[in-house]
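Exam revision sheet. Question 4 asks you to relate a sequence to its structure. Input first:
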Amino acid sequence: MTDSKFPKLLDYEALKKQFGEDGPTAPHSSAPTAYHAQREHILSNDDDALSFDAPPAQAEKKPGLTGSRLRSYAFAVLTRKEYAKAELIEKLSLYAESRDEVLKLVDELARKNYQSDQRVADTLLSSQKRKGKGPNQIKMKLKSKKLDTALIADELKETDWVQQAYELKVKKYGTEVSKDPKIKAKQIRFLMYRGFEMDAIIKAISRKPNED
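Answer key, structure tokens:
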């Protein structure tokens, strides 16, 4: 055998000086090595990080508005924008000390007409019609604000939805009445997405220019 193929023999005398008379601690020894100490430290820190008993981050404390301060805040909110009753309750509750106080305050504001679901519904109807939305989309919007459709039931009935759908179709596809089933299907899907009902859609895409 040559020395180039095999490592040199261990220098036990040097090992004794480095680790002591008994040599390095065996893995099964109860005495902790530097490796074991480091491992225990890491595991201990990981246990702390993963512990379900650790206190959660402190939530942001609410201002806790009451009395005149809550009332002033409510007026400030309504000055900037009209809110549905349900929306206003939720917004004020984020900053109020008591939800019961919020409910009483909003009822009072509604009685005195500072807050009005009717005004919100009327404004929403006008805004949605300007955006080319049909009755189904408008009803969904009302529902999202927890507004009763009955507030604008008459306006919804009186609106010429065929005309509304026709104007939107012309703006998107022009005045030509297509006989191509694919194009007609595309126009129908577009108007349905906008919230128009099928009866109004069929009349709108079939209407010729200058036709009543």
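Marking note for examiners. Residues 175 and 199 are 19 Å apart (CA to CA).
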